[in-house]
Design brief:
The complex is a heterodimer. Chain A is built from 18 helices and 22 strands. Chain A is of the alpha+beta class. The longest helix of chain A has 12 residues, at about 140-150. Chain B contains 18 helices and no strands. Chain B is an all-alpha fold. Chain B has helices at about 15-30, 35-40, 45-60, 65-90, 90-135, 140-155, 160-170, 175-180, 185-195, 200-215, 220-230, 240-270, 275-290, 290-325, 335-355, 360-385, 390-395, 400-425. The relative contact order of chain B is 0.19. Classes of the chains: A alpha+beta, B mainly alpha. The interface between A and B is medium-sized, with 23 and 26 residues.
Chain lengths: ~425, ~425
Amino acid sequence: MFVFLTELFAKRVRGLDDGRLLGHPVDLVANAEEVYPAVVGFMVRAGRSPAFYLPWSQIASVEPGEILARGTPEVPGATTPPEGSLYARRHVLDRQIIDTSGARVVRVNDLHLLRMEDGLRLIHVDVGASGLFRRLGWLPAVNALTRGLFDYELRDHLIAWKFVQPVGHFGRAGQRQVLRLSASHQPLAQLHPAELAEVLEDLDMHKRQALFGSLTPEVAADALEQMDTETQVDLIEGMGEEHATRVVEEMATDDAADLLSELEDEKAENILDGMESERSEEVRELLTHEEDTAGGIMTTDFIALKTGYTVDQTIAVLRQEAREAENIYYLYVLDDFEHLVGVVTLRSLIVASPERRLADLMSTRVISVTTGEDKSAAAELFAKYRFRALPVVDDHGVMKGLITIDDVLEDVAPELNR
Amino acid sequence: MSAARPTLPRPPAAARSWLQARWRGLLIFLSVVGPGIITANVDNDAGGITTYSLAGAHFGQTLLWALVPIAFALVLVQEMTSRLGVVTGQGLADLIRERFGVRITFYLMLCLIVTNFGNAVAEFAGVASAMEIFGVSRYAAVPIAAFFVWWLVVKGTYSTVEKIFLSACVFYLAYIVAGVKVAPNWPSLLREVARPQGTLSTEYLVMLTALVGTTIAPWMQFYQQASIVEKGVRIEEYRYSRWDVILGSIMVTVVAFFIMVTCAETLFRSGIRIETAKDAALALAPIAGKYNAYLFAFGLLNASLFAASILPLSTAYTVCEGMGWEVGVDRKFAEAPQFYGLYSLIIVLAAAAIMLPGMPLIKIMFLSQVLNGLVLPFILIFMLVLVNDRELMGEYANGRWANIAGITVVVLLILLSLFLVASPLFSQVAGPG
């Protein structure tokens, strides 16, 4: 049987034996570690004295109007709630949460709990209008009205707890933290990086920073790539240099270079110094190009192949490098001096017999741009040829990087950039 | 540095770093400036200008002194809101909801919608009056103004809108020019400012209360905090934000001073009674010249448009924030229906109220001032509780002296508000605040 938190808070707490009034429940304590947290006790307040903890083990039964407590402790507050518990009112009720099923930030109007044999579990949060009116005490009246007028009843808008990421930040000002959930319950992991970025941008500055700081560097980097530069800079400047370095390291080199060029020189330099040397070399190289040129928007994460490779060898190389590369559909073939001499598509590679050499397979007419060309030139090529990626070479024909369609999306279709 | 090359004499290192620090400070100040100045200036809206005109026209220079304590109270209250915004990164409605629960928030938001709607009506009435002085019919002026306001917010971004608003602040100079043109006797004026006085007549007290009430309004707290949060001012930059607040408050007071002086020097001396800001502008023409009347009308138009742009936006923003609905002008209508619905509804209804013949405008405006007065005490108390919450504010919570000053001002404001609300019981003179 389901029960709303509002209904629980309306009850009184009495002693089972003597019927003495112990107070009113003011908060509910649950185990944050579980996917559907089990209630471990109530915070109960009598009059104006501070609230005390009433563990679930002392609760004999939950009746319609009251909660009966067994073996009333002589000293209320003899026990305290376990460290790291989830508090329904302090952490969730009336606070913002991220609804990862809908990828949006909403405010919680009520909590929905399931009464089972062994106790109470938090199952849903209510973010709808009916929850709002229930809190206000108007729900029966509003329902009667809408039923009478429109033959319609407000429906509960419930979100399962497994899709809920609380974002309230707790602790003292200046050192706030996000409520830690268990390793088994990571709702944010279900979000696409673009959704995560959008959700983070919806949060206020402090919550955004706190939540961002709690992400793993990989997830943080993916989300960061999707944000606008101003937000990126705010987030990176707001976090410790060590952590910031790990995040930037995980970003695609072109996004990392764009971000670093916006940071204060000293900070950017420190981050670069902290990065793995091979990676920071690539980023430094990218930083030397003008912002609006092909060189300024390209990435260096491309797969370079040699003319002498066989199809088999090539596929072996792909297996190793595909994870890091921006694009694996077009494979670029270089000669011994790194000049771009041909391109092979993944399709032609797969249908070819394993011993053929790339020199025979590749198309030698490669469309490319030079590093110094304006990025609008690259955009035009994308529009004309419908490529997914475009190689970038220097003035000598040496391959320097790769532009993918998302790098020029704003130039090809400006209306998409909200 | 090579010895052979002639070098310019350079200031010693200490002075150089002092200069650099000043320069850096100025840059940071310019980056955080905005919320305080804009909020304070919006405060000199149609209702405000009416009140200052009435005060000058009916009481001459005897109310000038009140501007000093009002400025002080304004700084004190606005400083608390911006501190709340900077430290928590949250809006005021958000904080009230999290701290005091949904029930209080809901009813507070209802009251805020009603009082802000009344204020919005007053702003469109201001547009209509000002344009009528220029000979433009209200049936043309008000729809255009309403559309302009709606378009500005829906199509603009926060930073462009802020720049437009900051430029609008400059046009308040119109009132200063008008004030200087009537050439008052400055030494005696300044003596009046420094000399608290007054009669204990109900009319005088109502006017005094209206002056305070129009300067410190509920919506300002929400608006200022929201724009501080939107701007993303950091704690390290906070002391510059404080200057933003102080500068804004001084600007408002100076403008109010010149409006009162203009009306005192002209209308009061000639013994002309007025009821609205439009009356003031029209009555100025024969005494102080046509251009002074136009300056007054232009000032009123600017102020009304300015406030009409901000009030509906601030209301929609605050209510959606408190109730947890999607907020923001960068969303599509379907993503934030409550936000756009409320925003558009306030503009359309307020503009319509002006165009419908026979609407008791003066009554609506006065009622909105009364509601302002009723809502303000609650908001001030909530603010004091929040700004004293050590878990929320940490080291930025109010200290003892800040609390003594804050509580004194809040108690005085509450008493004045209650007096304003109750004043119709004492007399019938109460005009729109």
